[in-house]
Design goal:
Strand content: 25-35%
Bound molecules: S-adenosylmethionine
Order of helices and strands: EEEEEEEEEHEHEHEHEEEHEHEE
Structural class: alpha/beta
Shape: globular
Number of helices: 6
Distance between the termini: 13 Å
Number of strands: 18
Helix content: 10-25%
């Protein structure tokens, strides 16, 4: 029976050559993405900034609606298309998207590393990445075996393929699928498929490629139940992250505890955070997570 570790775990990411959280405070954060610095809104940074100098190449100025709207303002020229970055052996591009992101989620870096660790020593591990976006996590996992990458957005999957080419990983066995995550998982269950590891990084609200509605409060539990059916006692992990939702990591862990009651392993939960660079090195929380792991 999977053991639920009640005490929360902190999964804190550090900066690396191509990314860093330079400072945060007063509801904003200053980050570096390769040679460029950007300021973005960050409601959780309620403290004061440490640095006086917040010069940046661009700033995302939010609209009046917290969940959407707003636009980039540039102080210096930033490539309109994109520019190259790397995390470990994965290469990809960053771009200032209208959704205030930069085309990948740097706070996921410790998750990519943890997943690789869970699959270490397995041969040809089968991994599934639901809501895989631009594919950095899928490419990170592809060093461990075949990966199925699912995302509803044609544009994100096209970008993921471009990132695979940029990483010289086009020959890796990754299936790049434009599909609705919930429908795909249900179909895999009917086909009797199994995986060694599953990552789910769902948004609060989304749409499948045929207009299917994704609402986290309504659809998360059935999707995780399907994911459980795709794992067995030889599988290694399930990693679930949730952003900007009124939910506790303990609630996510409770869901996993129920669904994984008949499998061995451990369930942990807690905050995902990014550590600031420099003195002080404060932690900025970015998401909550729950994960099941099974050393096998
Ligand atoms: C939070 S992002 C994932 C970030 C990614 N895991 C990473 O670290 O780079 C959410 C993604 O979910 C996708 N999405 C939204 N609704 C979906 C659905 N119903 N089925 C599949 N993907 C969906 C969006 O296209 C978007 O790429």
């Amino acid at each position: 029976m999977a053991h639920l570790a009640e005490q929360p775990t902190l999964l804190a990411g550090e900066g690396w050559d191509d990314y860093g959280l330079v400072d945060s405070g007063n509801g904003r954060k200053l980050e570096r993405y390769g040679p460029f610095r950007f300021v973005r809104p960050e409601p959780q940074a309620m403290w004061s900034p440490r640095l006086a100098d917040w010069q940046a190449d661009g700033e995302f100025v939010p609209g009046s609606d917290e969940d959407g709207g707003g636009r980039w303002q540039f102080a210096r020229p930033v490539p309109a298309e994109c520019w190259p970055l790397a995390w470990d052996d994965v290469r990809f591009t960053a771009q200032c998207t209208p959704f205030r992101h930069l085309g990948f989620f740097p706070d996921m870096a410790p998750v990519w590393e943890w997943m690789r660790g869970q699959l270490a020593g397995t041969e040809d591990a089968q991994a599934l990445n639901l809501f895989g976006y631009t594919g950095v996590g899928s490419l990170a996992l592809s060093s461990c075996g075949p990966v199925t990458h699912v995302d509803a957005s044609k544009k994100s999957v096209a970008q993921a393929r471009t990132n695979a080419a940029l990483s010289a990983m086009e020959e890796r066995p990754v299936r790049w699928l434009i599909d609705d995550a919930a429908k795909f998982a249900a179909r895999e269950v009917r086909r009797g498929k199994r995986y060694d590891g599953i990552i789910l990084d769902p948004p609060k609200f989304g749409r499948g490629p045929n207009g299917e509605t994704w609402r986290i409060e309504e659809h998360l539990a059935p999707l995780v139940a399907d994911c459980r059916q795709l794992l067995d006692a030889d599988s290694r992990f399930l990693f679930l992250t949730v952003y900007a939702v009124r939910m506790s990591s303990l609630a996510l862990a409770g869901l996993l505890a129920e669904l994984f009651a008949d499998l061995p392993g451990t369930i942990e939960h807690g905050d995902l955070a990014v550590r600031e660079e420099g003195e002080g090195a404060r932690l900025l929380p970015t998401a909550i997570f729950a994960r099941w792991s099974n050393p096998g």
